[in-house]
Amino acid sequence: MGEGTYKRMEGTLTGQSSDDSVRIVLLGSGNVATHLAKVLAPNIVQIWSRNPRHAETLAHDIGAEAVENINDITLEADLYLISVSDDAIIPLAMQLKGRKGIWAHTSGSIPATALDGVGDAHGVFYPLQTFSRDVDVDMAQVPVFIEASTPEAAGKLKKTAAIFTSHIYDADSDRRRRLHIAAVFACNFANYMWLKADTLLHDEGLDIRVFAPLIEATLTKAMTTGPRDGQTGPARRGDRSVIASHESMLQGDDREIYSLLSDSILKYFNK
Question: In this structure, are strands 121-127 and 102-105 parallel, antiparallel, or unpaired?
């Protein structure tokens, strides 16, 4: 890989396996925390959450101990994973100042320095995937991006990631933020376009499922030929008459979004 790319960490394991040398406390019970709990279940000894009922349910599901009071978290864990919403990380870190051990959060957009003063070492354990609590994810395919304040912490985070995936990379806070932006384009914005399409389809008595072959073919092309060569459609062809016709059929935000994206595609392919 050239400069500015993500460095693949060597010596990772393939597939899911328990590593009894890593004892984990998980702080959080949301979408990301739930999937991490399932895949790291043999290694998780305690779960804490701002919602004690959620912590109890998740802990029961994986055979761990639920902790209601954050001050009752064990001091004997090897790794403390903070998997809460981005806006909750810093307030939570303020409660944890002076703790011992290795602490890491799972956010793609919050810097590792948010955990300064927490633990003997700190870092980031960022699984890049879209997570919904009740939707299964093949965690063996999920890349994990790691940042750590010490080599020991990096090794512990790497060992933890290797329990379920072989796709492990170094990424400092700046690179991780750029990666997160790219993921928003690739995932969140793409899904919103499907939502827009679904709304239009409902007006015709259909839904997004009728586009399943189209979406699958588009993704296959993007992954095989690359998204640049896979781009099609009226804007790619420079067919302004079709674009104008479509715009005349749309109103409000739909028309604005259609025009903005069409203009962007026209500019990109006519540099």
Answer: parallel
